[in-house]
Amino acid sequence: MEHGGFITRGWYGCLFLFPWEEWRKIEDRLNQVRITDMNGDVVKQFFSGGAKVFLDRQGRITIPASLREHAGIMGDVVVRGVINRIEIWGKERWVSYQEEQFSPKQIMEKAAALGI
Questions:
Q1: Are 12 and 85 in contact (CB under 8 A)?
Q2: Tens digit of pLDDT for each residue in 33-82?
Q3: 19, 60 contact by CB (below 8 A)
Q4: pTM to 2 decimals?
Q5: Residues 74-113: pLDDT tens digits?
Q6: C-alpha span between 8 and 6 (Å, rounded)
Q7: Backbone dihedral angles phi then psi of residue 86, each to the nearest 5 degrees
Q8: What is the Cα–Cα distance from 89 to 58, expressed in whole angstroms?
Q9: Can you say how many angstroms the Cα of residue 64 is from the centroid of all Cα atoms in its chain?
Q10: What residue ranges define each of the domains in the chain, with the CATH number in brackets?
Q11: Arithmetic mean of pLDDT over the chain
Q12: Which end of the chain has a smaller Cβ tally under 10 Å, C or N?
């Protein structure tokens, strides 16, 4: 991330921050989608509000207002590394997501779906 990256809307109301190399892979795949493929069109539209970001001398980025609004960022944030990207969450939204997605019932259902 030392040279910046691409920040865009993410799933569940967070933001995705991709290093350039990872974002280029996604762009390449999106550019291969046929114009008649409606699924591809929806995904392209979802990512269309993204922006290039660069690190300042202290390693910070500026998040565009529209993306802050999408993520419900009004103060504190949660930053989570996820394999090929960084997720940025408004703190309140992160707490809500944790409660919804990681309840014991949800974990049991997801484990069962994986055959565990």
A1: no
A2: 887 877 777 787 878 889 999 999 998 999 999 999 999 999 999 999 99
A3: no
A4: 0.83
A5: 999 999 999 999 999 999 999 999 888 888 888 888 889 9
A6: 7
A7: -115, 135
A8: 20
A9: 14
A10: 5-90 (3.40.1550.20)
A11: 89
A12: C
